[in-house]
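subagent[fold] <- orchestrator: predict structure for attached chain, return tokens only, no commentary.
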Amino acid sequence: MNANYDVIIIGGGAAGFFTAINIAENNSKLKIAILERGKEVLSKVRVSGGGRCNVTHACFIPNELVKFYPRGEKELKGPFHQFCSGDTIEWFERH
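subagent[fold] -> orchestrator:
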């Protein structure tokens, strides 16, 4: 196996795949590797839901959306203003 990659993403969860797809779309010549320590990639995605892992629910106001993430509310305000629920839904519709 050739181990020369331009980008290495640590974590084969939803964020890792989202990142890899966006990088590949913006620069298709880059070689990307996703490293996951678990047995399967995307394993948590299959069992997620119940609000906290689901950012596609009907809350489209960033200041309200962050309240679903009490441990990261402060840190997520900025990112949610740049890429919120509607953007996530649109992204999944395109892919």
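orchestrator: received. Logging for downstream: The mean pLDDT is 86. The two ends are 29 Å apart (CA to CA).
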